[in-house]
Design brief:
binds nicotinamide-adenine-dinucleotide, five-stranded mixed beta sheet, alpha/beta, globular, 787 residues
Length: 787
């Protein structure tokens, strides 16, 4: 890390510890929930109720948080940090908070009035922030006193605030550097967000470009005579955008909200494209405003799914959209290659998709000078706020200037000249310069010198472009992160584990042990690891090759044990899914560093199997370890339930609450710097004389005592209809390992004994028809079979 600047010192010298959110509606309540999840005590204020409990409105906002799916909290414990109140009785106390976030109705008058009230009581260093979606700060803050204007800022969260990592940070005309630094620091390091600086221009960055994309897409739909299903097919994963496409997304957002935003943008930019399509207006007039009322662009009718015909203004049966020319394009996994291929493809669907992408790129470039000072911020805003895999400028680089220009010329799409002019010898927007990413300067005139793109921590994609692997393979690659720390990256489909990647774990541990200080196992793909590749198991079982299965399971165990007993620290750093084998690797690391969003669990029973890569063994050892002086069976039963019920954490925090993680593990502050943190942990452990744990030789198992308890509990579950016969059989196999087999209570076994039991029980299950059916079902349908 570079040395800190004076503003960074200021940022950490006055941390944000308390907050107040005013407005307990959709955004306010969820922002309060996320702050509380991250340990900040927060007031949640709303208008006082006219009768009864004066805090009823904010209390309702708080209570409603429990019902939101997926949960706005990392753990419900956070609820205790949210204190409901009202803007008459509690404003004085709440206004003393370090950070006040206004999230009330989107109208300047009420917001200004609220600010005037808050201003009377604000503490001398309290920061006043607004969550406005687009009212300029110069307007909202114009009546504030000179001192408070320095501490007035926009922090624009995206819905849902826990999950969308974008927060646009908007400076008002007089916002001080210190205010920006303090807020950026808390957003980044405490809330795990990516603060993206945006200019004080209506709708800021993401909504301006995102809503332009929706309105423009609706226009192209008509001009090119397409159905809404067709457009949703074109504007989803084909472009690296969410599966919903455009119209389904509009239904989700709510057509009333969408029209409200479009009208707002029309007022702010009357010369631009922002107008409400006739079809959309017809839906609004009929109150068919989307998913919340069951009808929008799509609806479920008695006769089946229907979609809205924009010309005839009526519903008709939904039709599947097929574009023959795009079949090959869709198959490509790598988005950059997919888009490049798309731009070389001819046909009606390809034409429309190319045109829509070109329109978006040109618009982003046209408005860029007014909304931000770094093109990389535009891409980040679209990626983190709208879920686009690549923002418009990355897309331009992927397809190339020539291909883009051909489409822009064909459809008369005006593009600023500086975007296409070479800068520092390269036509692309991004350019690697000695490993640093530079980006074409936002400019209203000719292309200027390149500006540095925001670093945002270790970036594997950039690392790949400028470094050679230490060891490469089809499914995993070992990299040198610098400072004598190696990084093993998985990159198979869903990062599932087979012989190649398991062997890479063994090789990487060896390499780290012989020539480095430590190893990090982690990646920046969609998920850490979705478990074992079960396809091979099924083939082997069908061919009766049980020795192969035994060897495969043994290899899994060897990989886990290599992680645990490596002479150098092995930091496993999961994010999103860490299931089955992926979870087992985390369990075997002596210092896991988890992304806040980590969904981990031992889910093998879903495919009729059990954790045999050391997972059942590890949870057994931990339960028995915790039991010293306590009631052993209680601890073991809790661990047993995790496996038998295939429990998955809904956050890293919950993995601790469930007992999957213990005090050895850490939660990374921010996904952008998770791998840096993992590296720092490996280094710190190494520098303080890391020694692997001593081999576990003495596990006192509960034997027949535990088996009797598990058997009784499972019998009841089956009788009550909660478990099938095969569920019972699988769970009994798990129980047998955890009990240490049929031995008498108090027998002492070692780690290898439990690993052998894991393999034995795994093989027995793999030999059953019902397990094979479960595996096959998962492979074909992608979901578990209950048989
Ligand atoms: P909402 O209508 O769900 O909630 C607004 C809340 O503010 C209500 O509970 C209301 O009772 C309360 N309120 C109104 N006037 C008040 C006052 N004078 N004092 C105290 N409380 C008052 O609205 P929302 O969707 O949560 O939006 C809130 C703000 O966040 C708006 O500025 C909006 O533009 C912005 N925003 C919304 C979204 C979104 O997706 N909904 C996303 C980003 C930003």
């Amino acid at each position: 890390m570079t040395s800190s600047t004076p503003t960074e010192n200021l940022a950490s010298a006055s941390p944000i510890r308390t907050a107040a959110v005013v407005g307990s509606g959709i955004m306010g309540a969820q922002i309060a929930a996320h702050l509380a999840s991250c340990g900040i005590a927060v007031w949640l204020l709303d208008l006082p109720a006219k009768e009864g409990d004066r805090n009823a409105t904010s209390a309702k906002g708080k209570a409603g948080l429990r019902k939101i799916k997926p949960s706005p909290f990392y753990s419900e414990e956070a609820l205790a940090l949210i204190r409901p109140g009202n803007t008459e009785d509690h404003i004085e106390e709440a206004a003393k908070s370090d950070w006040i976030i206004e999230a009330i109705v989107e109208q300047p008058g009420p917001k200004q009035e609220l600010f005037a009230n808050l201003e009377k009581f604000m503490g001398p260093s309290s920061i006043l922030a607004t969550n406005t979606s687009g009212i300029p700060l110069r307007e909202l803050g114009k009546n504030l006193g000179a001192d408070v204007r320095k501490r007035f800022i926009g922090t624009h969260f995206f819905n849902p605030p826990r999950y969308l990592r974008l927060v646009e940070v908007i400076r008002g005309p007089e916002t001080s550097d210190a205010t920006v630094a303090r807020i950026s620091h808390v957003l980044d390091q405490v809330l795990g967000k990516t603060p993206v600086p945006a200019f004080d221009s209506p709708a800021f960055i993401a909504n301006r470009i995102g809503v332009h994309a929706m309105v423009m897409t609706m226009q192209v739909t008509r001009e090119m005579g397409l159905s809404i299903e067709a457009v949703d097919t074109l504007t989803g994963p084909l472009m690296g955008r969410p599966k919903t496409g455009t119209y389904r997304l509009a239904d989700l957002v709510g057509l009333d909200t969408l029209v409200h935003i479009i009208n707002g943008l029309h007022q702010a930019f009357p010369d631009e494209i922002f107008a409400v399509d006739n079809g959309l207006q017809h839906l609004i007039d009929n109150k068919w405003i989307g998913k919340k009322v069951g009808s929008g662009f799509y609806r479920k009718a008695a006769a089946g799914l229907e979609s809205f015909d924009l010309d005839k203004l009526e519903y008709r049966p939904q039709e599947k959209a097929r574009f023959e020319e795009l079949k090959g394009v869709m198959k490509e996994d790598d988005l950059a290659k997919k888009l490049a291929k798309l731009f070389r493809t001819e046909g009606k669907g390809a034409e429309a998709a190319k045109r829509m992408l070109a329109e978006s790129i040109a618009y982003a470039a046209t408005v860029a000078p007014a909304i931000t000072d770094n093109l990389a911020f535009v891409d980040e805003a679209m990626e983190l706020g709208f879920g686009w895999e690549m923002g418009p400028f990355k897309i331009l680089d992927a397809v190339g200037v020539e291909a883009f220009k051909a489409v822009a010329d064909k459809y008369n799409i005006a593009t600023p000249a500086w975007l296409l002019a070479p800068s520092e010898g390269s036509a692309s927007v991004y350019h690697l310069d000695k490993g640093l990413r530079k980006v074409k300067q936002v400019s209203e005139g000719r292309a200027a010198k390149r500006a540095p793109a925001p670093p945002r921590g270790f970036n594997l994609k950039l690392h790949r472009e400028s470094h050679k692997p230490v060891i490469a393979s089809e499914d995993a690659t070992l990299w040198d992160m610098g400072d004598e720390i190696l990084l093993l990256e998985f990159h198979s489909k869903m990062n599932t584990q087979g012989a190649i990647s398991l062997n890479m774990i063994l090789k990487s541990v060896d390499k780290a042990a012989s020539s480095a200080r430590g190893l990090v196992i982690g990646n920046q793909g969609a998920h850490f690891c979705a478990g074992a590749n079960i396809a091979m198991l099924l083939l082997d079982a069908a061919a009766g090759e049980y020795e192969n299965i035994d060897a495969a399971v043994k290899l899994f165990q060897d990989a886990s044990m290599a992680i645990k007993y490596a002479p150098v620290p092995v930091v496993v750093s999961p994010h999103n899914m860490a299931l089955g084998g992926g979870c087992e690797f985390v369990l075997h690391s002596n210092r896991p560093v988890l992304a806040p969003e980590t969904y981990m669990g031992l889910v093998e029973v879903g495919v009729g199997l059990l954790p045999a890569g050391g997972g059942t063994k590890e949870l057994t050892i931990r339960a028995m370890d915790k039991s010293r002086g306590g009631i052993a069976l209680n601890h073991l039963a809790k661990a047993f339930e995790l496996i038998a019920m295939a429990k998955v954490s809904t956050s890293a925090r919950e993995a601790f609450d469930m007992g999957l993680m213990d005090k050895r593990a850490l939660i990374a502050n921010n996904e952008n710097t998770r791998l840096d943190q993992a590296k720092a942990e490996a280094l710190a452990l190494s520098r303080t004389g890391y020694r692997p744990p001593a081999p576990v030789r003495q596990v006192e198992v509960l034997g027949s005592e535990a088996m009797a308890a598990f058997t009784a509990a499972l019998y009841l579950m089956r009788e009550a209809g909660f478990a099938s016969e095969h569920d019972e059989r699988i769970s009994l196999a798990v129980g047998r390992i955890m009990a240490g087999g049929g031995v008498s209570p108090g027998t002492v076994v070692d780690e290898q004994y439990l690993l052998d039991l894991e393999r034995e029980e795994f093989l027995k299950l793999m030999g059953t028809k019902k397990t094979q059916e479960r595996v096959e079902h998962m492979l074909k349908k992608g979901k578990p079979l209950r048989n």
